[in-house]
Amino acid sequence: MENISHFTCRIREIAPAAPAHYTLTPDIDPDALSKELVSHLEEGMSFLHSLKGARDIVHYYMAKTALHLSEETFRFLLQAGDTEEAKQYLQQLHAKYGAEKRWAILEKKYATVFAEYGL
Fold first, then answer.
1. What is the C-alpha separation between 46 and 88, in angstroms, rounded?
2. pLDDT by residue (tens digit) across 83-95?
3. DSSP string, 56-104
C-alpha cells in the first residue's frame, strides 16, 4: 500500500496580501491583474521553496493547531521517535478543541494512533 501525503493551503495563508478571491469583470485592467497574480504566486512559491521536508509541513500545521492532517502528524512524529513533541501537540489540540463535543471522537482516534506505536 502506497502512503501518499499532501499539502494544501489557501494562497492567502502564505501570501497575506492576496485576496480571498480574484474576480474578473468587464472593467478589470488585465495588466494590473496579471501583475497582482504573479506577485502573489511568487510569494506563494517562495513559501513552498522554503519547505525543505515533511517536518516543515508538519510544523506548519502544528503552528496552526490544525485538525487537518492531525492523525498523519502524530504518525510522522511517533515514527520519527518524537514522542514528546507528539504529546505536546496532543495537549495543544486538546487546549483548542477539548471542550467541543467532537473531542471524544478525536481523542479515541489519537489514542489508537499512539497505541500503534506502543504508547
1. 29
2. 999 999 999 999 9
3. HHHHHHHHTT--TTHHHHHHHHHHTT-HHHHHHHHHHHHHHHTTSTTHH
Return the H-helix or E-strand segment holding 110. helix 103-116
Alpha carbon 53 to its chain centroid, in Å, reads 13
For 12-54, what is the HEC assignment? HHHCCCCCCCCCCCCCCCHHHHHHHHHHHHHHHHHHHHHCCCH
Going by C-alpha positions, the residue among 16, 15, 116, 106 that lies closest to residue 68 is 106
Cα separation, 17 vs 46, whole angstroms? 14
Q: What is the pTM of this model?
A: 0.71
